[in-house]
Amino acid sequence: MKFLVFVTLMLVTLVNAKDWWENGNFYQVYPRSFRDSDGDGIGDLNGVTEKLEYLKDIGFTGIWLSPIFKSPMVDFGYDISDFYAIHPEYGTMEDFKNLIKRAKEVGIRVILDFVPNHTSDECEWFQKSVNRTEGYEDFYVWHNGKVDANGQRQPPSNWKSAFRYSAWEWNEQRQQYYLHQFSIKQADLNFRNPLVVAKMKEVMRYWLDMGISGFRIDALPFMFEKGPDENGNFPDEPVINDVSICPDPDDWCYLNHTYTQNQPESIEMVYQWRELTEAYKKEHGGGTRLLLTEAYTTFDNLMLYYGDGIRNGSMIPFNFYFMQNILKNSTATEIKDNILRWMNSIPQDVLANWVLGNHDNPRYSTRLGEGRMDLFTILLQTLPGNAVTYYGEEIGMVNGKVTWEETVDTQGCSSSPQTYESYSRDPERTPYQWDASSNAGFTEGDHTWLPVAANYKESNALSQSRAPRSHLQLFKTLIRLRQEPSMQDGPLEIKSILDDILIYSRQLPNSDMYVIVLNLSNSTQTFNVNDHFKIGSKAEVICSSLQSKHVEGQVIDATKFEAEPEVGVVLVNIN
């Protein structure tokens, strides 16, 4: 009988065994801002390697490195000139191999940023295409352009760059326009050319051979654009209906991007890349290679990035629906509906994912309110599935102040001293705050590539690691909590109390019940938790926002629970 019980337990364990990435927490490292090991003011690979144990100690499953490839750095690595080389400011190929080796020793996975839409105009491929070298003639999107009534040459269409102005640039040598949906220095690859598709798959295999565990894939909605008509012309895109929202004709938002965004072939390409990674696993072993995908697109398209019911796609199509629809004034009901729409729409046998920040958006601590940053950290880390953490979120970093003179982001520099703050992404990219020493311990040098945020002496990793209560200690508690059976596999039951309080539970049968209470309002509200979830008359506090009077380990009266303003609390039943 004991043997049968043992076998049964083993079978249950095997059935419930998870792949390495499932229910994980993935940490975006922006290498330029993470840790500078050589004193030049720019973060580098050896700096990342130095801090791998810190990240593993927190409990991260894997790190995603923003681009580290050779680049002129017009868009800080998203303009790649050599897909097979490390950018010298970040180190050498030997440094990268050492990082991979150390990551395996520590037990943390490494994921690379893959930028398929475009290359730098300094890339060898582009130069060959300019010269019409055999095999590279149509590697990029080229066009003769139009001639207007006055005999003047004009771009092929009205398409706009995401960084403003025309998406077409004349190349004098080739005597044609090339498409660039980002900066002039970022030429769009022509994915309708099978040679381009094959070349980018070759790039993927090269880095998989280096021992990485997957890719985060950049800017997918831009990858395909509508092809030319029978006369070889590209169609103009329509102007938005309400130009008061975006009155500047030079701005990307002035047009509806019906021909340059969200073409179905972009999703199909993700399915091909999933097939590539699965075939690689069969050939080489070593576990699943993960695909995370970036697409600011429609909700329905985000669902298709998971798969179409026949073919599989991205394991983690970033949930930008969540990020873009949680605003400073969002109500508990709106957030609940946002979460439930995702949970109820994802295909079977995939995992939800939750993301609130990255290198292209203001930090959620700044965007949603510094007093509520712990509340949203608790939300992000207690929902089912995978969580994505942008560097510094674990210590509550806020946007730094970057003046016009200090601005280096191409998106900000393309604007003006009057408007740059609406465009620049520099404030969310300021150096990591390691300690209270000069330049926040980011560098031993005397300068940093972006200014360090002003609050680094009060808010940094070292001081928070030593404090009994801090953003970092809260984050570590939440990561440990995520390993509990009910938090791994317990279904989500979620409600809103009026528009102020979000309350939800996670519980497996015969396991602990966790109830999370998030008070979005600015007033204390007292209620019986059991009116919503049967947690019992007493409950224990697992963790809470720093300003809360409810502290870890405290036993509270769940029948008269005081939900404090702008505070999140995690409770567990007392058996």
From TrEMBL:
Signal peptide from the UniProt entry: 1-17
Gene Ontology biological process terms in this record: carbohydrate metabolic process
What EC number(s) has UniProt assigned to this enzyme? Answer: 3.2.1.20
Please report a single Pfam family linked to this protein: Alpha-amylase
Which reaction(s) are listed as its catalytic activity? Hydrolysis of terminal, non-reducing (1->4)-linked alpha-D-glucose residues with release of alpha-D-glucose
Hydrolase as a keyword of this entry, yes or no, is: yes
Which key words tag this protein in UniProt? Answer: Glycoprotein, Glycosidase, Hydrolase, Signal
* Composition-biased stretches (Polar residues): 409-422
Positions of the Glycosyl hydrolase family 13 catalytic domain: 28-429
> Which GO terms of the molecular function aspect are on file?
alpha-1,4-glucosidase activity
- Protein family: Belongs to the glycosyl hydrolase 13 family.
This chain belongs to the protein called: alpha-glucosidase
**Protein species of origin:** Musca domestica
